[in-house]
Each structure stands twice: as structure tokens, then as C-alpha cells.
Amino acid sequence: MPSITINGTALVAPEGATVLEAARKAGIRIPTLCYLKDVSAAGACRVCVVDVEGVDHPVPSCSTVVWDGMAVTTDSPRLATYRRIALELLMADHGRGMGAPCLVCDKNGACELASLCREYGVEGPERPEPRPVRPVLDANPFLSFDPNLCIRCQRCVGACNAAARNHTLRTGKRGVRIAIEAPFGEDWRATDCESCGTCAQACPTGALTEKRRGAYRSWETERVRTTCPHCGVGCQLDLVVKDGRIVDAEGASGPSNKGLLCVKGRSSSFDFVDAPDRLRTPLVRNAATGQLEPASWDEALDLVARRFTELRDEHGGESLAAFACSRSTNEDIYLFQKMARIAFQTNNVDCCARV
Ligand code: SF4
Ligand code: SF4
Ligand code: SF4
Q1: What mean pLDDT comes out for the span 1-12?
Q2: pLDDT tens string 137-189
Q3: Residue 59, CB half-sphere, CA atoms under 13 Å: how many?
Q4: Is 199 close to ligand 1, i.e. is its CB under 6 Å away?
Q5: Labelling 173: which of 115, 134, 247, 252 has CA 20 to 30 A away?
Q6: Which are the contacts of 299, defined by CB distance < 8 A and separation ≥ 6?
Q7: Which atom of ligand 1 is nearest to the CA of 197?
């Protein structure tokens, strides 16, 4: 394994590691923008440049593989100047018309580009050129893409291809004219996009966002780690909570999902919590009026237990079946089949996950 130094500290890097990977492993920060671990390493933003002894120009740390004896410097006035220029070039092409609309951007407070610009003292392009405003793609019910805010880092492309493995979101054109082709226009139904939002979670700016992102600012929220309630995969997610209400869901790194969510986990995990028509108490049908009326849990459970017992005693256990919800936990389902076999005296047990 190659022995290298980073900022004078000697360390042994994994064989084939990039400078960025070796630095992160050693706890040394190098700023990045287009890089996303295991998802995208396009080497497009040039923010992660470092100096290497014997090389006369800074090199991108995300795409430079370490070699034995390599001496790396990650911070210097020269590197700060390079990074500032890289950020100024990105800012020159970021925004609608003149300048960046950071204050009204949905990503305000969570934009990685803005954060790095603050760190390197970049306030915007020195001579912003007026340029045509490109149309926003927002026909998709969950997602929208504003090409005017896109810095063409291609993290969304890596997210759709390498993480979601959907291959719907692509780059069009090449070189300086490279453009993102997001499938959120009027023809979104005809595309293979599954609206999983993996691309939006990967986007470092306000270019590609979940529509509900506009309902909150990051500094107003807290995150609560939980398990997606929708299927047995058990993806981990963070519920984003503002003023005691859930306003969003983000994929968290769990053993079965590694930060990913499907459209159900990302966009259907919480709306029902505060839905005005949500059932909050059991309902029992009034035999006289035929209307469903609120009842206590004891009343409802006593009624159900009595009726099931009557059916079993009158017609035998084979007259009953237990059909479980696939959103239940393993432990609940185990208890459920026990109840069917012992209390109902039937082996008629099934679950909607099977279909
Ligand atoms: S929502 Fe999912 S499938 Fe659609 S473009 Fe984004 S990552 Fe690809
Ligand atoms: S939409 Fe976002 S992630 Fe995709 S290239 Fe543009 S800035 Fe990067
Ligand atoms: S996010 Fe999708 S795949 Fe993951 S547990 Fe929820 S429904 Fe299942």
C-alpha cells in the first residue's frame, strides 16, 4: 500500500485510492462539490484541487490516484485562489438572469454551493452577464428542475444511474455546453422515471428539488430517524420536522437502503399523519342506523373478539382467515399467525406482500 504524506502527516493509503479518499480516511477535509461517495466522481467542479509535490499545477483530488512517496498539500493561498476562481466560474452561470436568487431559492440554508462561496469569500460573478432564462421543468408532481440554477456537476446523473439504477436522467451535449436532461417536463409520464427523488437528494444546489422543499428552511427543522412504514425492505429515513409537523423525508444510511428511498418512502411516508380525514379512533357500525360511530378501543376490541369467537364456535376455524398487512413488523406478524392458529384454530394465514 502506498505511503504518502498529506499536509506533512505520514500515512498509508489503500491501494488504488484517490487523494480525496485517502484524505477522508485520515480525517482530513478537502472541499468538494461534484463528488458524491459511491455515486459520482465526474471531476467537473475543480473545487477539490490539491497540490502534489513535483507537479506544477493543482490536480483534482477526486480523480487523482495516490502513488508511493506522494506528498500532498490540501490548503494554501494558491489553492484558495484556484478554488475561488472555480466557484466564481460556477456562480457566473448560476441564477436566473442577473445574479443568483439565493434568498428566494428553496435550497436557501442547505445549498452546498452557497456554503462554499461563503467559505471562500465569493459573493457572485464580478461581471454578471444578462442571459436568457431557461424554462423550469415542473410537470412531475414531486420534482422540479430549474436549469438556471444547475452547475452541471452531474451528481444527479450519478444518483439516477449508479444509485437508483434507473438511467432516466442524462447529460445532453458535451464539453462547455453540457446540459442536464431531467425527465420532469410535460412528457414525464412517458419516461421511466420512478419519481424516487434520489437525484434531488444528491443535488448540491436548488436546481433539482423536491417540490415540498419550499415549505421549510433547513434551520427551522429537526430530523427524526425512523423506518419507512410502507414495505418489508425497511429503509431507514429521516423525517424532517418543523413546528411539530412532518414536512419532508430524506433517505438515511441503513443496511438495506444505503441512503436510497423509493417514491413511497420519500413522498408518501408522512402526509397521512396530519391528514384531516385520518381515522383517529375505532369506528363501530350502529346496528340501528347503519352509521359508523366513534368507539373506544376496548369497545371495538371486545366486539371483534366476541364476533370472531362466535363464528369459530358456530362454523369452525376453517370459516376464518387471517390476512396480515405487509407493513407490519416481523414481530407483529408472528403474533398475528399465533392468534390465527391458536385462537381462531385455523391455518388460513396470508399476507398482501405475497401478491
Ligand atoms: S426521480 Fe429517481 S428515477 Fe427519476 S430521474 Fe430522479 S433518480 Fe432518476
Ligand atoms: S441538477 Fe443539481 S446535481 Fe444535477 S448537475 Fe445540476 S446542480 Fe448538479
Ligand atoms: S422506501 Fe420504498 S423500498 Fe424502502 S421500505 Fe419504503 S416502500 Fe419499501
Answers
A1: 94
A2: 999 999 999 999 999 999 999 999 999 999 999 888 776 678 899 999 999 99
A3: 19
A4: yes
A5: 115
A6: 282, 284
A7: 1
Grid cell for residue 84: 475561488
Sign of CA pseudo-dihedral 278, 283, 285, 288: negative
CA atoms of 355 and 349, how far apart (whole Å): 14
CB of 17 closer than 6 A to ligand 3? no
Assigned C-alpha cell, 189 = 409520464
d(CA 153, CA 151): 6
Single pTM value for the model: 0.86
| Percent of the chain predicted with pLDDT > 90 | 79
How many residues are given for the chain?
Answer: 355
For residue 43, the model assigns a pLDDT of: 86
Structural domains of the chain, with CATH: 3-75 (3.10.20.740), 219-278 (2.20.25.90), 297-351 (no CATH)
Render 204-269 in DSSP notation, one character per residue.
SSSSEEEGGGGG--GGGEEEEEEE-SSSTT--EEEEEEETTEEEEEEE---TTTTT---HHHHHSS
And the C-alpha cell for 267?
Answer: 413522498
> Closest ligand to 233 CA?
3
* Mean pLDDT across the chain: 92
Q: Whose CA is nearest to atom 6 of ligand 3?
A: 265
Question: Among residues 352, 322, 325, which one has the least CA distance to residue 338?
Answer: 322
Distance separating alpha carbons of residues 94 and 116, to the nearest angstrom: 14
Q: What are the pLDDT digits (tens) for 70-79?
A: 999 999 999 9
| β-bridge mates for residue 249, sequence order | 239
**Ligand 2 center from residue 147 Cα (angstroms):** 8
Q: Tell me how far apart the alpha carbons of residues 225 and 246 are, in angstroms, rounded to a whole number.
A: 12
Residue 213 is predicted with a pLDDT of 93
